[in-house]
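User: I'll paste a sequence; please echo it back and then give the predicted structure.

Assistant: Echoing your sequence first, then the prediction.
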Amino acid sequence: MTTTFPATNYDFTTFTPARNLIGGEWRDPSSSHAKQEVINPRFGKAMSTVAMSGADDVDAAVRAGSAAFAGWRDWPIRERAQVLYRLRELLIRNIDELSWLISHENGKVFGEAKAEVEKGIECVDYGCSLPNLAAGNQLEVSRGVACEVVYEPLGVVAGITPFNFPLMVPLWMLPQALVGGNAFILKPSERVPLSSLRLADMLAEAGLPKGVFGVVQGGREVVEAICDHPRIMAVGFVGSTKVARAVYARTSSHGRRALCLGGAKNHLVVVPDADVELTSENVTASFTGCAGQRCMAASVLLAVGKVDHILDRVKERAAKITPGKDLGPVTTDAALKRITGYIDDAERRGAKVVLDGRGAKASGGDGGYWVGPTIIDHCTLDMPAATEEIFGPVLSVVRVESLEKALEIENANPYGNASSVYTSSGDVARRVIGRVEAGMCGVNIGVPVPREPFGFGGWNDSCFGHGNITGWDGYRFWTRQRKITSKWAQQKDQTWMS
């Protein structure tokens, strides 16, 4: 068991090194691989280290998972769900500790980190309900003949998760995979590997048998080994579109299933009849929340007609946000340089930076990787800031004369994660939501994340594979259907099934 994380504020705090969990034991990599620093973005200095593992470590985790799977799959589904009930209680009991750990390794402010844990708990809640939802259907299809569907585990499966939600995204996958009877290997982002240590401890305390859950730390070598391993039967991935496409292609080429969620360039359509206060508050929260480091963040505002009164209010609200207090840092120095590069480029091309977050400093200290809320007005579609994923607290405003032009721009976007419209007209809302190329849509909501039991998943270049990663689709992804047709009595009549 790892130690608990002791921080109760933003003061710099170190934590135990991140190692691999294989067969219920914490281990160093099997061969001499390098270690990487885990940086606290608020200070820009190392709070821990992470072991960079290799293919041998993935194989060891698979072998341990396979051995544990043989017994775990035989647990009744309700008994498997009981582990999640106990995990839920542990997550609630330790919510502040987990929130501070996420804040320190990821950089988001405490309130955002706590919201992440709460959303993870909601996903566990859904997993607890699966014994009722997953009851196999049975129907007498002919006299004396019954057809039945049951959901069975795949075996050893794996999840590869990103830096921006170190606890929540693993909990998108784990409840359905574990209740489904699988053994699960987690490869967390090497930037934020520490939350996985505490999650593993809590699963063990909740009664999960050794080996059913494993953790392999590392980078590209581990990801490729997961894609290629012949005994990993399914892979879930959340990250950038470039890597999502590669993981999907590589895993699928071996004939195994993959569901890989990628990046986004989400558009908010704002029309003149939108409520000023609701819209300004919501848009500001959407593009600044979690420092813009989420695939559901607003990144382009399509301003239809005369909406300057709304844009002015968005600027007023965003200008009041204080880095360090209301807004966390971005995760790396490279991210800081990339984000400011997009702003610089748009300004050189003729856009107007009406709210400038470049050079921001946090309240109460020096160091770290800070970008304040930034609004770039009069962007055009030849500017990368208007078309590429920035992943920072930056809102690019594109002015259009009509709703039709706004829809044309949104639908030319290769991504398809989220899109929202701000209006007080039901007709406008229906027209936009019915035509945008996005899997998750909002009406007067800038972060239209579906709550459980509704599944999370986008379209187009935001998703590779079929279905959603949460909800019922998630359970079906981590299981396979067995169809059983049975006959126990001789019927008197004849049918084609006789």
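The chain has two domains: 20-262+462-482, 266-443. The first helix runs from residue 55 to 72.
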